[in-house]
Design brief:
49% of the residues lie in helices and 8% in strands. By secondary structure, the chain is mainly alpha-helical. The protein has one helix spanning 26-50, and strands at 16-17, 20-21. A two-stranded antiparallel sheet has the order 1-2. The longest helix is centred in the last third of the chain and has 25 residues, at 26-50. A hairpin with a 2-residue loop joins strand 1 (16-17) and strand 2.
Length: 51
């Protein structure tokens, strides 16, 4: 998880998240993770307001 979230650099082999290489496109990886998380949080908030 630490490599895929760009907290650690991979020491061998390729690793990617949402189509981005974690070694060369770390900022894009982090942005794509945050967007996904934010969308999920917003959806949860909408669901809770409906109840």
């Amino acid at each position: 998880m630490k490599i895929l979230s760009t907290l650690l650099k991979p020491d061998a082999g390729p690793a990617g998240v949402n189509g981005f290489d974690v070694a060369t496109q770390a900022a894009d990886v982090r942005e794509s993770i945050s967007r996904t998380g934010q969308t999920h949080v917003e959806a949860m908030g909408r669901d809770r307001r409906r109840r």
